[in-house]
Design goal:
Elements: E1 3-12, H1 21-29, E2 36-45, E3 51-60, H2 65-74, E4 79-89
Antiparallel strand pairs: 1-3, 1-4, 2-3
Length: 90
C-alpha cells in the first residue's frame, strides 16, 4: 500500500466569537500518531486580518483514512470549513 500526502485548509467557524487559531493548531498537532503523520501545521493570512490553518499530513492510502482525518479536523472546537487543497501519492 502506498502513502498519500494531503494538504488541508482549515477555516475557523465564523459563528463562534473569539476563535483561537492557536488552540486549533495545537489540537491538530495532537493528531500525529502511527496512522497519521502530521508534518506541518501553520497559520496563514487570508484577508482583512483573518487567518486560516494549513495542515500537511501523510497517511497510508487506505480506504476511508482521509475521511476519518477530515472528520477529526471538523470535530475540533472552533473549526468551520475544511477543504482539501492538494492530494498526491508518494
Amino acid at each position: 500500500m502506498g502513502m498519500v500526502a494531503i494538504t488541508y485548509k482549515v477555516m475557523p467557524d465564523s459563528e463562534i466569537e473569539e476563535v483561537s487559531i492557536d488552540d486549533i493548531v495545537s489540537k491538530v498537532q495532537g493528531f500525529n500518531n502511527d496512522v497519521y503523520d502530521v508534518q506541518l501545521v501553520e497559520t496563514k493570512p487570508l484577508a482583512f486580518g483573518l487567518k486560516f490553518v494549513q495542515v500537511h499530513v501523510v497517511m497510508d492510502d487506505g480506504s476511508g483514512l482521509s475521511d476519518k482525518f477530515e472528520d477529526s479536523l471538523k470535530s475540533v472546537l472552533g473549526v468551520g470549513e475544511v477543504e482539501v487543497l492538494s492530494m498526491g501519492l508518494l
